Amino acid sequence: MDYVKNAWYVAGWASEFDDNLRALTILEQNVVMFRASTGKVVAMEDRCPHRLLPLSLGKRVGDAIQCGYHGMTFDCQGKCIRVPGQDNLPASADIAAYLVHEKHDITWIWMGDPQKADPDDIFDMPQFTDPAWDAHLGQALHLKSNYLNVAENLVDPAHVSFVHPTTLGNTASENVPVHAATDGEVIKAWRWIRDAEPIGFFKAFGNFSGNVDRWHYYNLHLPSIAVIDFGSAATEDNLAEDERDKGVRLYALHFLTPVNDQYTIDRWMHLRNTAINDQAVSQNLDELFKTAFAEDVEILEAVQREENRLQTRKPVRIAIDKGPLVYRKRINDLIEKEKAENTVV
Amino acid sequence: MDYVKNAWYVAGWASEFDDNLRALTILEQNVVMFRASTGKVVAMEDRCPHRLLPLSLGKRVGDAIQCGYHGMTFDCQGKCIRVPGQDNLPASADIAAYLVHEKHDITWIWMGDPQKADPDDIFDMPQFTDPAWDAHLGQALHLKSNYLNVAENLVDPAHVSFVHPTTLGNTASENVPVHAATDGEVIKAWRWIRDAEPIGFFKAFGNFSGNVDRWHYYNLHLPSIAVIDFGSAATEDNLAEDERDKGVRLYALHFLTPVNDQYTIDRWMHLRNTAINDQAVSQNLDELFKTAFAEDVEILEAVQREENRLQTRKPVRIAIDKGPLVYRKRINDLIEKEKAENTVV
Amino acid sequence: MDYVKNAWYVAGWASEFDDNLRALTILEQNVVMFRASTGKVVAMEDRCPHRLLPLSLGKRVGDAIQCGYHGMTFDCQGKCIRVPGQDNLPASADIAAYLVHEKHDITWIWMGDPQKADPDDIFDMPQFTDPAWDAHLGQALHLKSNYLNVAENLVDPAHVSFVHPTTLGNTASENVPVHAATDGEVIKAWRWIRDAEPIGFFKAFGNFSGNVDRWHYYNLHLPSIAVIDFGSAATEDNLAEDERDKGVRLYALHFLTPVNDQYTIDRWMHLRNTAINDQAVSQNLDELFKTAFAEDVEILEAVQREENRLQTRKPVRIAIDKGPLVYRKRINDLIEKEKAENTVV
Question: Minimal CA–CA distance to A19: which of A4, A37, A32?
Answer without folding.
Answer: A37
